[in-house]
Amino acid sequence: MQIAILGPLSVRADGVGKTPSAPKLRTVLAMLALNANRAVHFEQFVEELWENNPPASAATTLQTYVYQLRKSLRLAGSAEDGATVLLTRPHGYELQVPRADVVDAVRYSALLDQARDRHDAGDLEACAELARQALALWRGAALSDLPLGPTLAARATQLEESRKAALDLRFEAELALGRHRRVVDELAGVVKANPTHEAYSAKLMVALYRCGRRVEALDVYHRVRSDFIAQLGIEPSATLRSVHQQVLVDDPALTLPAPRGGGVSETTIGLDNGQIDQNGQNARATEAVVRSIDDNGTVTESSAIEVVSVVRADAEGDLVPLRPAAAEALGPNHLPSDVPDFVGRDEEIRELVRRCCAARTKLTGGSAVVEITGGPGAGKTSLLVHVAHRVRASFPDGQIFVPLAPVQRGEETMADVLAGCLRACGVPLSPAPSMSELVNVYRDYTATRRLLVVVDDAARSAEVDLLRPSGSGSLLLVASRRRLYLRGVCAPVSLAPLTVNESLELLGQFIGRRRMLEDLDCASALVRMCGRLPLAVAAVGGYLSYRPNWSLRRMHDRLSRDPGAVLRLPCGEGTVDASVRASYGTLRGPAQEAFRRLASIDEFTVPDAVKLLGRPGELVREVLEDLESAGLAEEIGERGGSGPHRYRDVESNVDVLRPSTSDVVYCVPRLPSFAGRLLAREAEPAAREAAVATG
């Protein structure tokens, strides 16, 4: 059994979700999990459940809750069974867990304690890794989907402060290891989310300074100082002022010490601590060191890059770098800022990171390709950038980010894109390079480097092939509106809508958890109206965040009267309608017509579509495959199949499947169907004019 409280409450047993739905049961379980292997007194439960107004039957009611938990989660038994059990203690109850990983908060605390111990012992590499593992357990604000009483509210605050301390510890270790380029973007996002946390701001200033961005480092201080004076009437702390002064005078203390002797020391490349050839894991590292020794028997600075980039496998099959040199290898770092509090997609992130990790061990056969696909508004770009930040450290020669939306809009050509990439990487070009020259220069630049090339909004495989690194050990990470069937691609990760809990967590980030919990039923209805699409949920959340006096019921009533209104709500510079239209623009002509005509139908089969479109069956099948590839239609099952009954999801326009024939049943998802009807209305005048013109 796994109980997760570092985010929405979640319980899984044997891979199956077992999370209680009743609010009081969830509260009791959270109290027990937070105090795992410790008794919780009866009075603590009463205070949390009813505060100052407990019912006369409080004791009996609590016993009922405990009985229901034991029955539904199979927590009955004795402490000797080696399983998770709920025990009765004098004056209370205790959830006894056999291992630290049963409750994520317990596992988190253990990892953080180990990280602090390694920091105190001077093992910064282990400290950073342990802190990273601890922070990876968080899925959002602790207990974000529970109404918090006095005890849980205090513990949630305590956990959040501990999370900040873990982040601070990790950043401190990463900076001491010379990884300022890896953490600078993440630090910028964390500072934006925590503007009054001076320790984060100080570390961001140091990271920016070491990256050669001195002006930006000074700007961080001025923003913090202005906010402190305007909001609190005080100056920043002496520590932050000291870092500011060091940046002003170019204090050498801000830089990491360079290797002695003009070369690379054994300590720098990890020869002194048993890393080389330990248990046979570092044979490749040893060979690289031998190859890098020149005729005088020394390791030269020019050959050190190869040594530092060699990686070894750890116990879990993942790869970690050898102890880094004092300064990171200089290379392009073009990734946009990461999302500070990314919501959901845990399974997809693990799978994508696994594939990316496998890609970086590749030594022959060209670069690997990992593709993210999904329908309009599924959050492909956010996930793409988030995963890129997770794996960027594995590609020491740089990260290149290529948005192809301007190409799809006709604002740029692929020649413009290639030239821009190369110039941003510092590659000299002739004044007016031809396409063939650009392709050859790009292939030459990428042939000997381990690069992460991130391509967003790809629409055609030919565009992606032009950006494919030519050498081995690089990775091409692609987000596309439709399946591109790229050569050499790993099995693509296709994004479904978020779960209801993930959608609520995302909504809560915009409007605040307390406001959401005041009318949780209405909030749940809102995210279902959004089809659980991240873009739509974010649009509704952003709209409500600017209207603090609006109730969730008022927003619900508005969308009930005009369900297509969510298409028009802005989220940044985009809307769901614009995203659907962009996917629609990737369709061929017959598929565009089919989308407009099928969008008004709840469900249909191939024979239904043949009758409606008046086209041959084979062509209709190709059209439906085109719609499905673009995320504008879904195959939802078969009528009359022998499998279990299939029911319509609340977010799609599909009724209960009635047994008739074995035809495959399709539908257009909820929000694209609204957009498709709008496109159909817009197309009608043009069709009438064309009919008149042709007589």
UniProtKB/TrEMBL annotation:
It comes from the Bacteria. Coiled coil: none annotated. Residues 1-97 form the OmpR/PhoB-type domain. The keyword Transcription applies. Keywords: DNA-binding, Transcription, Transcription regulation. InterPro entries: AfsR-DnrI-RedD_regulator, BTAD, OmpR/PhoB-type_DNA-bd, P-loop_NTPase, Sig_transdc_resp-reg_C-effctor, TPR-like_helical_dom_sf, WH-like_DNA-bd_sf. Residues 1-97 bind DNA. The keyword Magnesium does not apply. Belongs to the AfsR/DnrI/RedD regulatory family. This is BTAD domain-containing putative transcriptional regulator. It comes from Amycolatopsis silviterrae.
